[in-house]
Design brief:
1 helix; six-stranded mixed sheet; elongated; disordered N terminus; four-stranded mixed sheet; alpha+beta; Immunoglobulin-like
Length: 155
Amino acid sequence: MSHQRLSLLSVGALFVAAILLYACGKDKYTSKPQLKFIKADSYDVARGELITFRLEFTDKEGDLSDSIFLRAEAKGCPASNRVLGYPVPEFPTTSNSKGELEINFVNGQFVQGFVAMPSPACGRPDTTTYYFWIKDKAKNVSDTISTDKPLIIRN
C-alpha cells in the first residue's frame, strides 16, 4: 500500500471517528432535565405588556410535569427580587423528550389567562435578570439558567 493511500485512509478514518463521536455526544438525554435559554421576545417591557421567554428542554424519561421556577433579580432594587414557582401543565411526552417551553407573564397588571409579574418595587424601571430551573416528576432538578442579558422592566 502506498504512503499516499495510507494517509488518505488515516484521514478518512479520523473523519468517520470524529463524526461518530459528535453524533454520540450531540443529544445526550439525562434523567436530570436540561434547559437552554433561547430568547426573550422583548428586553424593554412596559407596564401591561407581555413578557415571553423561550426555553429549550431535554429529558430522558419525558416526565417534565412537576414545576418550573423563575427567579427575578433586579440590579439596584432588592425589593423587586422574587422567586416564583408554577406547575408545568401535563403534555404528551415520550422518553428522550426534546421541546420548547414558552413562559408568558404580564408586567404589573392582571390580564385574563396570563400570570401577572409584579411591577418594580422601587418606583422606577428595574434592570432585571431572570433565572429558570425545572423539576420533573421524579424530583430531578435541572441546572439554573439565565436570560442572555437583563431586561428593563418598567412601571
